[in-house]
Amino acid sequence: MASENLGAYNIEDLRQRAKKRLPRGIFEYIDGAAEDGIALKHNRDVYQSLKIKNRVLKNVSKRRNGFSMPLRYTPKLIAQVLANPGWCLRVLAPQYIQRGAFKKANYPPELASKLTDKLVDHELTKPDTQCWDDIKRIRDIWPGNMLVKGLQSLEDAMIAADYGLDGVVLSNHGGRYLDCAPAPLQLVPEVRRAVGDRLKIIIDSGARRGSDLVKAIAVGADMVMSGRPTLYGSAAAGEAGAYRALEIFQTEMDRVMAQLGLTSVDEISPHVFWNPPDWVPKPKPARLLEKIASQASGG
Q1: Among all residues, which ones are annotated catalytic?
Q2: Do 214 and 268 touch, CB atoms closer than 8 A?
Q3: Of the candidates 195, 187, 139, which has an alpha carbon nearest to the alpha carbon of residue 163?
Q4: What is the rounded radius of gyration, in angstroms, for the C-alpha atoms of the chain?
Q5: What pLDDT does residue 134 have?
Q6: What is the pLDDT of residues 171-192, one digit of tens each?
Q7: pLDDT tens digits for 117-169?
Q8: Which fold has domain 3-72+130-296?
Q9: pTM of the model
Q10: How many other C-beta atoms lie within 10 A of the C-beta of residue 102?
């Protein structure tokens, strides 16, 4: 089924379709969170509390929202995965084994032992023993881009910068762990002030609208990740549903940028907010004056 033929016009539509199709227990696992669901609700509340200002009579016919769609799974891509099983297992196994998705019973006994015992560093599956020394060890042997996901504090972000990481993912894991955790969106400004351009700042947890992506970038995030929305889409209609979730984000973000009078994602800044709370960065006066002068001159 083509993604445009699903009849889903927002993420909530996909959520309702997923709820109808999935067994109750599976849906509640995807849709729910830790303890009382406080962090889960707070993630959405923070996004919804921020209001943005509509601008009119601006030429926004040529917009670039910086939104990229992922590649589809092709036979060529699958063949590349199958040709490099050792690498794939080293990357994927720690998470899958810890979560229980990797089942030895799905493989012949002689292959299962080789898969799990020879290729997997079992120390990586013990979260209680992990520390920043492990990150340093990996950083020392890995020259490529390296990020850490799940940070929820300014202190940890500063350590990540000092250890030479390229970026961090500020996340409370969708409210699944610490129920009284702050929303990642709220952490972005203080982390950005502390690390400047030393780190790329990515956030997840709570984004459900294209306007949420604009808000996240406006407070200082470089990128926004999506978890539940694409899961809702997958449950609703498989690959087409997951793509539909991303298309919804893309379409909504493009529409919001037009309503804000913006033609490029580079123009998104705190100036888009109306009466923001104190934790939101203040617009730079020079930027505002430059924009006003440009508009007055017809630029």
Answers
A1: 173
A2: yes
A3: 139
A4: 21
A5: 92
A6: 999 998 889 999 999 999 999 9
A7: 554 555 555 567 889 999 999 999 999 999 999 999 999 999 999 999 999 99
A8: TIM Barrel (3.20.20)
A9: 0.78
A10: 19
Q: What angle do CA 218, 222, 223 make, to 5 degrees?
A: 105
Residue 191 corresponds to which amino acid? V
114-130 burial, b at 16+ Cβ within 10 Å, e below that, comes to ebbeeebeeebbeeeee
Q: Which of 194, 143, 149 is nearest to 173 (CA)?
A: 149
As a whole number of angstroms, the distance between CA 242 and CA 235 comes to 8
Place of tokens 């017809």: 298
